[in-house]
Amino acid sequence: MRIRLRLFASVKDIVGQRELTLDLPEGTTTAELLERIARDHPRLRAMAPTLLLAVNREYAEGSRILADGDEVAFIPPVSGGTDLYQIAEGPVSLDPLVASVARNTSGAVATFLGIVREFARGRQVSHLEYDAYPEMATAKMRQIGEEIRKQWPVDRIAIVHRIGRLAIGEASVAIVISAPHRREALQACAYAIERVKEIVPIWKKEAWTDGAEWIGSTVDDYQKREAPARGVGISPLLGTDRPLTPNP
Q1: Torsions phi, psi for 46 (to 5 deg)
Q2: CA 110 to CA 236: how far, in whole Å?
Q3: Phi/psi at 29 (nearest 5 deg)?
Q4: For helices 134-151 and 182-199, what crossing angle results, to 10°?
Q5: Which fold has domain 81-248?
Q6: Is the pTM of this model over 0.70?
Q7: pLDDT tens digits for 93-125?
Q8: How far is Cα 116 from Cα 87, in angstroms, rounded to an integer?
Q9: What are the angstrom distances between the C-alpha of 176 and each of 16, 62, 99?
């Protein structure tokens, strides 16, 4: 089979080309492809733990089996380090995100992975469908990252939410935060998922064995559940943008 490999920034400099067309045996995985290129370019091996892998413009795990015609990209970390906020149409995985946030200064990486459960609201769920306002969603994720950095000394932040149809057991949202110490990493990660549900415009459709219904955004759902406990009224249009108070 034949694949197209795209290389960027420091990876491009190491290999000496922006693109390669390769003939590979059937069943080759992305990790095996990376290993093959690293054998010819040893400097790439040192970068391997920090590289993100993408297949057909979607992040992929090293175990992804490639097919004829696939476009594969090796994506190096951004110079100086940046956080990642993304709405994804393909599978969400923790492994590449953990690799992307870990730094030499990191003593801990805290992760959260939200998955689709079979029962919700007293009914059996066959699958979920998520939709989002991507530009606003990523802007709100970035806001959450800024709030976190004002409260905890973290190294890197990654927040990714998937849209489209998700089966039972598939991941809908991943949050990964690295920090010098575990306490800050864990607190920031817990804060992040609560804020995602508070302010990020993502809509969820539940499909049951006997029908389906859009049940509003994650913001709406969160507010309906949390408002009585807080003892406050919340506008369904305006919502709330009040940061949570971190745990002492």
Answers
A1: -65, -25
A2: 32
A3: -100, 170
A4: 150
A5: Aldehyde Oxidoreductase; domain 3 (3.90.1170)
A6: no
A7: 888 888 888 888 999 999 999 999 998 888 889
A8: 17
A9: 32, 18, 10
